[in-house]
UniProtKB/TrEMBL annotation:
<feature type="domain" description="EAL">
    <location>
        <begin position="338"/>
        <end position="591"/>
    </location>
</feature>
<dbReference type="InterPro" id="IPR029016">
    <property type="entry name" value="GAF-like_dom_sf"/>
</dbReference>
<dbReference type="InterPro" id="IPR050706">
    <property type="entry name" value="Cyclic-di-GMP_PDE-like"/>
</dbReference>
<dbReference type="InterPro" id="IPR043128">
    <property type="entry name" value="Rev_trsase/Diguanyl_cyclase"/>
</dbReference>
<dbReference type="InterPro" id="IPR029787">
    <property type="entry name" value="Nucleotide_cyclase"/>
</dbReference>
<dbReference type="InterPro" id="IPR035919">
    <property type="entry name" value="EAL_sf"/>
</dbReference>
<dbReference type="Pfam" id="PF00563">
    <property type="entry name" value="EAL"/>
</dbReference>
<dbReference type="GO" id="GO:0071111">
    <property type="term" value="F:cyclic-guanylate-specific phosphodiesterase activity"/>
</dbReference>
<dbReference type="InterPro" id="IPR000160">
    <property type="entry name" value="GGDEF_dom"/>
</dbReference>
<dbReference type="InterPro" id="IPR003018">
    <property type="entry name" value="GAF"/>
</dbReference>
<dbReference type="InterPro" id="IPR001633">
    <property type="entry name" value="EAL_dom"/>
</dbReference>
<protein>
    <submittedName>
        <fullName>EAL domain-containing protein</fullName>
    </submittedName>
</protein>
<dbReference type="Pfam" id="PF00990">
    <property type="entry name" value="GGDEF"/>
</dbReference>
<dbReference type="Pfam" id="PF01590">
    <property type="entry name" value="GAF"/>
</dbReference>
């Protein structure tokens, strides 16, 4: 039963909690109901209540007493006053006590007839609140057994309150104060609006690695590990510093005084200590800790999320050589933006029509014929506008969304190709595939999509960047060879900017190489670039690959390329990537005259 402050609105027997407006609901008080029932039974009162110094109130009304007495109005005010006084009091006939008698009212209208109060103390003698027993009718003076019962109940309520306070602040596994305590202490640390304090956070190990410890060794091992780490941190701490467990494998520290600063040498020492191998239940482990620092200002406490920010710094520090880092707002904002984009991209892939493919023609130099269309993903976000593939493709790779993106591209690209083939266009489709796609499932996914859309595999080409194609070359070569055997063209994209091992290149089951646009766009101006590209073309031909130049932006570059015996060209000078609806028109316009005249420039 939940109530707002001071209103015992229930007309049934039961129990309730009230708390100061604006605060979070307090946890139940361990054992309160049992204690209150004992007191109510022994004293025969229809209301037993406990008021704590933090403003929260608990009450119990046993059944069989008619309408329960409400803990509000004059009674609540008297209880609050008695709580502050902290002395025991029994008023066996309260009818003429001014605290319970409305102004000018007859004693017959007193709100209560019996009132007993017993202060509640913690073990250290601190006043925690008071326990009350109240009745409508007066009682005879209490005999010793009743007085003792009230005193015992108050002392048990004190134990419950202390236990609740402990549970409210303490992580049961490590015994360290936890996140609530961290925030409560941080607020008391920064009383004035202009106060600032340095916070420290430790990410003990990367989350995936810590979860792997738990999976392999069990939760009690993880608890023991956190104990051991906490002991190390405590060995480094100066007196007055406070340590908190703020999450799984995450610790935070408050300095003894808000203005205390930490010197770099002390932080280096801290990281070195945390990096030392740790022996946990006989299993040696080396952690990968990150220590984050944040200077927080008092006005940032409300809604400013200091713990998230200092943990962000700790997370960044984990991958740094130094192992500690001060919070960097720019980097944080970039990460938040990336996170936002990733969730938006996931939504765009699963339910929203924001993605589209554009198609860039690739033309055979000798005939001027369009031999392929490269499908390029476009994302128009409803509020951010056009997000370039150079931004969202790498994010999809990092966030594990690449397969979904590639499946989307396969499905939409092949559907479009099928439509063009039905319309009698003689084109091939070239699709970009990332390293995350290059495994045994790619062939199955591609074949299934081709079957679904009834397009021959020979109409398809996959573009892998040079670095993807060369990475883990043995396994990759097998996957690529399987695709090649199935009739799919394989292009090595962005060729010339990676560092291909010639031998690996010779063994690549590729059909063509696309020389990177950064090498092509300056061909007309730089003799050095021209010499490099010329030798690349010769090498690629020697190895049996067709050569495509991408990034042909001007007629002069096209002229330079013509003299290099390259096979195909692609670039803004020939055509920009086009929306699907414009492709047929472009192909018609560029289809007829004799070969040499067909290309612009
Ligand atoms: P890429 O595969 O090298 O694609 C060619 C990029 O060069 C495209 O940029 C294209 O618009 C641009 N381009 C074409 N002609 C010229 C030119 O003459 N000059 C210059 N400076 N640029 C030209 P876009 O569309 O922004 O794509 C960037 C990259 O994003 C692509 O580079 C590709 O790596 C990736 N990407 C795009 N779509 C997909 C996709 O569907 N899947 C995957 N895995 N990656 C994609
Ligand atoms: Ca490409
Ligand atoms: Ca490229």
């Amino acid at each position: 039963m939940k109530m707002t402050q001071g209103s015992l609105a229930s007309s049934r027997a039961g129990a309730g909690i009230a708390w100061p407006a604006g605060d979070a609901e307090p946890h139940a008080l361990p054992g309160f109901d049992a204690v209150a029932r004992l007191a109510a039974t022994t004293l025969g009162t229809p209301l037993v209540a406990l008021l704590l110094a933090d403003g929260s109130a608990f009450w119990y009304t046993p059944p069989g007493h008619g309408d329960p007495i409400r803990l509000d109005g004059m009674l609540l005010a008297a209880c609050r006053q008695a709580t502050r006084r902290g002395v025991a009091e029994v008023v066996h006939d309260a009818r003429d006590d001014a605290r319970f008698l409305p102004v000018d009212a007859d004693p017959a209208h007193a709100v209560i007839g019996f009132f007993a109060c017993e202060p509640v103390f913690a073990l250290n003698g601190q006043l925690l609140g008071a326990l009350f027993a109240v009745d409508r009718r007066p009682h005879p003076p209490l005999h010793a057994g009743e007085r003792n019962a009230l005193r015992d109940a108050a002392s048990l309520a004190g134990t419950g309150a202390a236990l609740r306070h402990y549970l409210d602040r303490t992580d049961p596994a490590t015994g360290l104060p936890h996140r609530n305590a961290f925030f409560a202490d941080l607020h008391t640390h920064l009383p004035g609006a202009d106060d600032t304090a340095w916070l420290l956070a430790v990410e003990v190990a990367p989350v995936a690695r810590f979860n792997a410890f738990v999976r392999a060794m069990g939760h009690s091992y993880a608890d023991a590990l956190m104990h051991a780490v906490a002991a190390r941190v405590q060995a480094w701490m100066t007196p007055g510093m406070q340590l908190y467990q703020v999450g799984t494998a995450r610790l935070a520290l408050l300095p003894a005084h808000p203005h205390d600063e930490l010197l770099p040498a002390r932080l280096d020492e801290f990281v070195a200590l945390l990096r030392e191998p740790i022996d946990c239940l006989g299993v040696p482990l080396t952690l990968q800790p990150g220590v984050g620092l944040l200077k927080v200002e008092a006005h940032e406490l409300r809604g400013g999320d200091p713990l998230r920010r200092v943990m962000n710094a700790a997370h960044v520090a984990q991958d740094s050589v130094r192992g500690w880092a001060v919070y960097d707002r720019t980097q944080d904002e970039r990460q938040r933006q990336d996170f936002f984009l990733v969730t938006e991209l996931a939504a765009a892939l699963s339910e929203r029509a924001e993605l589209e493919l554009h198609y860039q023609p690739r033309v055979q130099l000798a005939s001027g014929r369009c031999v392929a269309l490269e499908a390029l993903a476009r994302w128009r976000h409803p509020t951010l506008g056009a997000v370039p593939p150079g931004v969202f493709v790498p994010l999809a790779e990092q966030a594990g969304l690449m397969r979904s993106l590639t499946d989307w591209v396969l499905d939409h690209g092949l559907a479009q190709l099928a439509a063009w083939l039905r319309d009698g266009l003689d084109v091939q489709l070239s699709l970009n595939v990332s390293s995350a796609d290059l495994d045994a499932t790619l062939e199955t996914r591609l074949t299934a999509a081709a079957r679904r859309h009834a397009v021959p595999l020979a109409r398809l080409e996959l573009e892998f960047t040079e670095s993807t194609a060369m990475r883990h070359s043995d396994a990759n070569r097998c996957h690529l060879a399987a695709l090649r055997e199935a009739g799919v063209g394989i292009a090595i994209d962005d060729f010339g900017i990676g560092y291909s091992n010639l031998d690996a290149l010779r063994q690549m089951p590729a059909s063509c190489v696309k020389i990177d646009k950064s090498l092509v766009c300056g061909l007309d101006a730089s003799r050095h670039d021209a010499a490099v590209v010329r030798s690349m073309v010769a090498l690629a031909h020697e190895l049996g690959f067709r050569v495509v130049m991408e990034g042909v932006e001007t007629g002069r570059v096209l002229e330079a390329v013509r003299g290099m015996a390259c096979d195909e060209v692609q670039g803004f000078h020939i055509a920009h990537p086009l929306p699907a609806a414009d492709v047929a028109g472009w192909l018609r316009e560029h289809a007829s005259p004799p070969p040499a005249d067909r290309l612009p420039g």
